[in-house]
Design goal:
This protein has about 160 residues and is mainly beta. Helices cover about 10% and strands about 55% of the residues. A hairpin with a 5-residue loop joins strand 7 and strand 8.
Length: about 160
Amino acid sequence: MRKGFTAVFAALAAIAVALVVALPAGAAGNAGSTQVTTFDPTGATFPCTNGTTYTVTGGTVKSIMHFSTDGSGGGHVTGTISPTGVTLTDGTTNTVYRLAGASWFGGNFTASGNFVATDTSFFNILGPSGGPVGRVAAVEHSSSGGTNWSFSFGQCSAPND
């Protein structure tokens, strides 16, 4: 589900900086553009500290990304990733689990390359009764000024890809 937050943000920042540099001096900025895509997450894994790894068996994931620039040449990007009908297996039983939640990231950067970005991932792996059997709860923050940190409050990790 996550595409490597730092790598994705760096790529988006590079694209946006290129767009900002191409703008004429004194430009008023733009409202930006939004891209919506879906993909099949089958095979993605959610490893948990209790030794269980949940593997996605079906469903889709929607990714919504928005880019814009401001009048000072700064760029802004946000993205949301959300599962729809995603099912999982624990690999040892016939139990079908469901995935609920979303991941969101956002960031701002200047034409000179300074940036600040935050990524959040909050997913519940739901058992047949509807209650959570595993949870991803993570926040990651980074900036060109060196304010970088991450916290994980859940017992499971989101997929890296």
